Amino acid sequence: MIRKIIKIDQEKCNGCGACASACHEGAIEMMDGKAKLTREDYCDGLGDCLPACPTNAITFEEREAPAYDEAAVLASKREKADSELMQWPVQIKLLPLRAPYFDEADLLIAADCTAYAYGNFHKEFIRNHVTLIGCPKLDGGDYTEKLTEIIKNNNIKSVTVVRMEVPCCGGIEYAARRALQNSGKFIPWRVVTISTKGKILD
Questions:
Q1: Is residue 200 part of a domain?
Q2: What sections of the chain are H helices per DSSP?
Q3: Are residues 61 and 150 in the same domain?
Q4: Which has the closest alpha carbon to 6: 43, 38, 54?
Q5: Whole-structure pTM value
Q6: In Å, what is the CA distance from 182 to each residue of 17, 73, 150, 178?
Q7: pLDDT tens sequence across 178-191
Q8: Range of 128's domain?
Q9: Residues 60 and 86 sit within 8 Å (Cβ to Cβ)
Q10: Eight-class DSSP state of 202
Q11: Is the pLDDT of residue 79 over 80?
């Protein structure tokens, strides 16, 4: 059938993975450092991935493609509902300063409410990351010193901070920023904000 579907320009794609995270159907995967539309029947043609792409590598096109298979998408989500957690413990205050799982790790530093607010948290954020969670308001402390030591004393590849939009969540973002600065290392990092409605804001 002829229908509207996304097209990914491989020359423009910078491999950031934002589109794969934004695709709630799981139609896009990262392969060889680039985003690929791997399941045309999972693409609903609504384009949630378009605004997520920082390089405008994704556009719509009308062409021959399989029909959108909502039943297959739902079945796939159920199959992928297993935990993606790679290590234990996860609470920042319980984590050691050094551990084998930190070597060459992509760190996820997340406010603990984010996993409850965002339904696809395991697949989009925990997968392939060492997970550190906390709540500066409830824990009543500043994580800066501990996060600094973890980043400084281990070979960390990247840092992703996931926080809620509420003001109290600023504490975890502040601690992560300060830890990166204090570590003296130049590590790729990003901040993702989740709304109280469970949507990614930025």
A1: no
A2: 18-22, 70-79, 114-117, 121, 136-139, 144-153, 170-183
A3: no
A4: 43
A5: 0.62
A6: 27, 44, 11, 6
A7: 999 999 999 999 99
A8: 92-194
A9: no
A10: -
A11: no
